Amino acid sequence: MAEPAAQHTSEYRTGSDPRTLRDALGCFATGVTIVTCLDGDGSPVGLTANSFTSVSLDPPLLLVCVARRAASAGALTQASHFAVNVLQTHQQPASIRFATKDQDRFGATPWSPGEYGPPVLRDSLGVFECAAHAVHEGGDHHIVVGEVLRASFDSTLDPLLYFRGRYRRLHFD
Question: Which of 18, 45, 63, 115 could form a disulfide with 75, with the two C-beta atoms 3.0–4.6 Å apart?
C-alpha cells in the first residue's frame, strides 16, 4: 500500500507570524515593475513594485501599491503623472537597483522622459504613462490609481517574474 504524500501546507491566521502571511502571498507569481515620476524639483524618482494591476478598461485605470515608508512614496503620491515600467527578463539588475537604497538609480539605468513627463525606462516590456487619478490608504501602503494616457509594449520580450521570494523566468514547452 502506498504511503500518503507528505503535506507541506503552512497556514496563516490572525495573530500568526507575519512572515507566514508574506510567504503565502509570495505563492502568487507576479510581474515586476518600476514606477517612476518626477519629484517637486523635476528630478526623476522611482521604485520597484510588484503590486500592480488593471482596475478598469472604461475609464482606463490601473493601480500600484507603494510602501508608505519608501523614500519615493511622497513624490509618487503627489505627482500629477507617473509611469509604470513593466520589466523584461534582462532588466533584473534595474529591479534590484530600484528596490535598494541606491542613490543613483537613474544614472545606471537608460531612460528618457515620457510623453507626459515621467521617466520611461528603455527596453521595458511595457510602459503605462498615467495621470494621477486617486490615492487611497491601505494599511502600510498607499494605493495609487492612475488613468492610463498612453501604453506601449514589445510583444517579443519575456516578462521578469517574482515567485516565492525569487526572480523567475517563463519556461515554454
Answer: 45
